[in-house]
């Protein structure tokens, strides 16, 4: 598969703006990101190119400067690239070890371990939104529960709930590359029992009143648009964990979710990103 590469020059502060730009662009058909100095490098499969690109670049204009530099590149060995550049093992909450297949196993056999080779997908646990949701899941009792991971990316959160004892897990993403990467991860982590679907919120129509835990780590605009579809799939007493938005956006999220019958429980933030928990009474 060939890709188009866009290099976007960041305004300072570079590190903080790199997180903002990659977070916003992850809501589009971009398949992956790299950071290099004062640039975010965004990749999109050639077959996914379309007029949406102009809208995406306009959305991040406040944090970038100058025109994006575009180039074409052939498929690459993404495991090698990640290992070479910046993907290192990650320990979350002292109990979850996230590593690539090219990294050593957890230093303590009692730790939960997930193997993630992200290729072009979003979600290694290093991004604050993924880490925040994972840490919330580690505090929940999901044993025997039905779980949905909407916008699954690499499948990391879906696999975590499976490892924590969920009875059934559904992982959904609109990006074919993410779905492919998730399926590869299920095999790496002996989690093939997870169901993986290619699609958006319309794929939830068959799951009315089904889930005990619903996860949505996606762009704010999608969350706001699709929350009613999420709620329809949730049992009474089900929890919704939502992230992928900035902390100042929490008031908008809370208002929209209240309009759809959800009660706010709590919120955490990290590096300007937010994760919030809601319950369906």
Keywords:
281 residues, alpha/beta, Alpha-Beta Plaits, Rossmann fold, seven-stranded mixed sheet, four-stranded antiparallel sheet, 8 helices
What would your notes on this structure say?
The N and C termini lie far apart (46 Å). This protein has a seven-stranded mixed β-sheet with strand order 10-9-8-11-12-14-13, with helices on both faces. A four-stranded antiparallel β-sheet has the order 2-3-1-4, with helices on one face. A three-stranded mixed β-sheet has the order 5-6-7, covered by helices on one side. Helix content is 30%, strand content 30%. It folds into two domains: 3-75, Alpha-Beta Plaits, CATH 3.30.70.980; 123-279, Rossmann fold. The chain is an alpha/beta fold and 281 residues long. The model has no long low-confidence stretch (mean pLDDT 89).
Compact overview of the structure:
This protein has helices at 14-25, 52-59, 78-85, 128-139, 156-163, 176-188, 220-233, 250-259, and strands at 3-9, 32-36, 39-45, 69-73, 90-92, 96-99, 112-115, 146-150, 168-173, 195-198, 211-217, 234-246, 263-270, 273-279.
Percent of residues in helices comes to: 25-40%
User: How many domain modules?
Assistant: 2
How would you name the CATH homologous superfamily of the largest domain?
Answer: Vaccinia Virus protein VP39
The CATH topology of the largest domain is Rossmann fold
Shape type: globular
Q: Helix and strand string, N-terminal first?
A: EHEEHEHEEEHEHEHEEHEHEE
Give the class from helix and strand content and strand pairing.
Answer: alpha/beta
Q: Provide a count of the helices.
A: 8
Quick one: CATH class of the largest domain? Alpha Beta
Mean pLDDT: 89
Radius of gyration over C-alpha positions, nearest whole angstrom: 18 Å
The major pleated sheet works out as: 7 strands, mixed
Estimated share of beta-strand residues = 25-35%
Compute the number of strand runs.
14
Strand order of the largest sheet: 10-9-8-11-12-14-13
Which residues sit in consecutive blocks of at least 5 with pLDDT less than 50?
none
Terminal residue distance: 46 Å
Query: In the CATH hierarchy, what is the architecture of the largest domain at level 2?
Result: 3-Layer(aba) Sandwich
